[in-house]
Amino acid sequence: MRIGIIGLGRIGALHAATLCGLPGVDSVVVTDSAPAAVERVRATLDVETVATPGEMLTGKIDGVVIAAATAAHPELIVAAAEAGVPVFCEKPVAATVREAVAVEQRVRGTGVPVQIGFNRRFDPGVVEARRAVHAGELGHLHTVRSMTMDPAPPSAAYLAASGGIFRDCAVHDFDIIRHVSGREVITAYAAGGASVAAADDVGTAAALLTLDDGTLAVVTNTRFNGAGHDVRLELHGSRGSVAAGWDERVPMRSAESGVSFPSGTPYRFFLDRFAAVYRAELAAFTEVAAGSRPSPCTIADGVEAAWIAEACTLSMREHRPVLIEGLRRPGAAP
Q: 150 near 253, Cβ under 8 Å?
């Protein structure tokens, strides 16, 4: 199998290294608009290079991984799909939800599979939590708590292009809530504080979501979690509860006397928290590209998470609950 990668920044370089070590991947072809990025990858990995995405997509290729800047995602997704090449694209589908909807509509008619990079779907704890929910082991689900807490904000340049904390960070929580519960979000009520310097964004945010069966979901996010990188999910039902992300390295300490858990070195960065998860995610994409499984995270999933992010952004701005369906109407904000 011959897999291409477009974009060789931090995550693209990681994906290149991962693909080079996956069974069934015979060759990896890379391209980036920055020649220095290509040279850095070529210096450490056995990869082929091409000058442009167009050259890659018109060559013999079995699948393409899009890790370029967000602004390039729509054009690249559509170009690959129209060329008949299966697509893995890092989230988000597009910079705005309206643009993401347009991409979904254009791709739908091609029949080409698209997988969006919501990697937490492959976290073993999340996989087990979802199994427990769908097996009925928790009974009626009534409360979900999901959090993403980063130890420090990214660069000012990244923040300026991120779209804000709900679109960039909390969108992972929104996706995993839909994925694990099997329900849709109908309303969102959000707040934020602690502005991030050099960006029109907040550093800490919270959202209260109502799902279509009445389940309540609470999402919390921050760019300033000094204890470390903390990603957790809790699901509470009428017969039981389950949590993902509680292991020996969770950056939290108990204030109870005599309790030593957790005792491991706290996670400091998303790459050490999710290194194995990224490998599982790309292994799944090779199966998608081979035609042996459907996309485990479709472009429609990416669009739905984007709608929730838009609703939370608007709710925070206007200090009111926002109905998701109301946003979908033509002419509605945003």
A: no
**Do the domain assignments include residue 292?**
no
| CA separation for the pair 172, 121 (Å, rounded) | 9
- Are 227 and 249 in contact by the 8 Å Cβ rule? The answer is no
Q: Do 71 and 212 lie in a common domain?
A: no
How many C-beta atoms surround the C-beta of residue 161 within 10 A? Answer: 12
Coil, strand, or helix at residue 1? coil
For residue 195, pLDDT beyond 90: no
Cα–Cα distance between 94 and 302 in angstroms, integer? Answer: 9
In a domain, residue 293? The reply is no
Q: What is the DSSP string of 181-213?
A: H---EEEEEEEEEEEPTTSSSEEEEEEEEEETT
Query: CB burial class (10 A; 0-12, 13-18, 19+) of residue 44?
Result: exposed
- Work out the burial of residue 190: count CB atoms within 10 Å of its CB; fewer than 13 is exposed, 13-18 middle, 19 or more buried: buried
Contact between residue 178 and residue 251 where contact means Cβ atoms under 8 Å apart: no
Which helix H or strand E contains 27, and what residues bound it? strand 27-31
Tokens read off for 99: 């643009």
Instruction: Kindly tell me if the per-residue pLDDT of 82 is higher than 70.
Output: yes
CB count within 10 Å of CB 218 equals 16
What region does 47 belong to: left with phi over 0, alpha with psi -120 to 50, or beta? beta
Helices (H), the chain: 10-20, 35-44, 53-57, 73-82, 97-108, 124-134, 156-162, 165, 171-181, 270-290, 299-318, 324-328
Give the model's pLDDT for residue 328: 84
Query: Would 240 be classed as within a structural domain?
Result: yes
Strand partners, 141: 237
How crowded is residue 269: how many other Cβ atoms within 10 Å of its Cβ? 13
Would you say how long the chain is, in residues? 334
pTM of the model: 0.94
Q: What is the average pLDDT across 136-148?
A: 98
DSSP code at position 265: P
Supply 58's token pair: 């018109």
* Whether residues 194 and 313 fall in one domain: yes
